[in-house]
Specification:
Length: about 300
């Protein structure tokens, strides 16, 4: 039983009776493997499972991309191929697994949106009303931009989280990892102005830094609404969210020459690979480095 089709049938029977795969998954896997068989036959290759090699599989995947199949579809077919040939190898029907090199294609990540320095300044320096809510909202925006902390981290801040003299903030991040990061003078000033209004309130029974009209901790959802309302003035943004301020913080630091490892620590990233996405965003920084370093990057005075 050396034909590919016969082994596909055996594989599907195994998935149904031993792995209890759903009918939907069985149909999908069957369709995917049948498509490989059709490809081999149409391209006049040997339709024998023992003779299928990695070049055959690579060409099959390439043919799918040329047909403009989606990442999800190709990913599912790759999964079916890997499972099928692993099945054959485990039953000692193959000496080598030709699908071992296959990697599920990943959709390219979209670069995070950010604000320019001018756009950020326009939001932060807009005139505010002299009341508790306006000062609170201003302090929230300043803190986001000054520290780059996550929405959940800002929502979890207490009155004791900020060292006003040392100009630092203590944050409890993902995995309950605590970090202490610097805070800019403008953010410190904005928080101080907010607190001067808050002190006039009576019977505040929470140590939360930011509170709602009920004198309770302001929720992450409430903070997001405040940020999104202020970002709505920037028409270029496709999506409004507090995370844009985090992206903006990181990109502006890198544009000004900050070290990537330092930015990683400020953001509370566990792995440097997470921070490296901002090196793609920061085209402005690349241009500065290029113009400064390349001998023919700038126009000659004689040109």
């Amino acid at each position: 039983m050396s034909s590919l089709s016969s082994q596909i049938k055996s594989f599907l029977t195994y998935l149904k009776k031993e792995k209890y795969f759903s009918e939907h998954t069985l149909i999908s896997y069957g369709t995917d493997l049948k498509e490989l068989e059709d490809f081999l036959r149409k391209s006049k290759r040997k339709v024998n499972y023992k003779e299928v090699d990695k070049d055959d599989l690579r060409d099959f995947i390439i043919s799918l991309t040329r047909k403009k199949r989606s990442f999800v579809t190709i990913g599912r077919k790759v999964s079916a191929l890997r499972s099928f040939f692993k099945f054959l190898k485990r039953r000692n029907l193959l000496r080598r697994n030709p699908s071992s090199f296959l990697v599920t294609p990943k959709k390219g990540k979209k670069l995070p949106e950010k604000l320019s320095v001018e756009q950020m300044r326009g939001i932060l320096e807009r005139p505010h009303k002299e009341n508790l809510r306006a000062r609170r909202d201003s302090a929230i925006l300043e803190l986001f931009y000054s520290t780059g902390i996550r929405l959940s981290e800002l929502a979890g801040l207490d009155l004791s989280s900020i060292d006003y003299h040392g100009e630092t903030i203590r944050v409890l991040g993902k995995g309950k990892r605590e970090r202490i990061i610097p805070v800019g003078k403008k953010a410190i000033s904005a928080v101080s102005e907010y607190l001067s209004f808050r002190r006039s309130l009576k019977d505040v029974g929470t140590e939360a830094l930011f509170i709602n009209p009920k004198k309770q901790r302001l929720s992450g959802r409430g903070i997001a609404r405040i940020v999104n309302k202020n970002l709505s003035e920037v028409s270029e943004l496709k999506k409004k969210s507090p995370h844009i301020l985090r992206h903006t913080f990181a990109t502006h630091l890198l544009d000004s020459g900050a070290d990537l490892m330092a930015v990683k620590e400020l953001l509370g990233h566990k792995n440097i690979s997470t921070t490296q996405v901002y090196t793609s965003v920061s085209v402005g920084r690349l241009k500065k480095i290029y113009r400064k370093a390349h001998p023919r990057a700038e126009k000659s005075d004689n040109s």
